[in-house]
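Suppose you are handed a protein chain with no further information: no name, no annotation, nothing but its sequence. What can you learn? This example shows the usual starting point.
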Amino acid sequence: MRFEGTVFRYGRDVDTDVIIPARYLNSSDPSVLARHAMEDLDPTFVSRVRPGDVIVAGENFGCGSSREHAPVALKAAGVSCVIASSFARIFYRNAINTGLAILECPEAVEAISDGDVVSVDTDDGSIRDETTGASFSAQPFPPFVAQIIQAGGLVERTRRQLAERGGRA
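A reasonable first move is to predict its three-dimensional structure. Written in structure tokens, the prediction is:
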């Protein structure tokens, strides 16, 4: 999958409580969650983010509570990919399960600035800062994980597989 978008840059230890504050967890509707994504960390995020935009962040992105709402909120807000130095394990798995593309690349995080335009190819792990011309390489997902993300998440991939088999498990 290829994406190109403007970078929203954040620091390390961005936890799920600031990705989607707990006060909005009474809804699982992606459009509702999207309206409140990142609001406690960056109140202007929702008004500025556009489909295809990319979050770049430091270590331990998505730490804290294990809530699927966090990657769902980012994806529904328009974020195409999160590039971080590292991810909290539960966020990493929830991102895959909900179809949010993520890449670990500390070198890219060090070099890419807020507002830069980046292009990302998750199939080969390439990241290019279109603003500066710098290129980076992240480890791409194995094909079966890439298929889950491309399908829009684990549930959607399973639905498609069942439909291909005529509804049989």
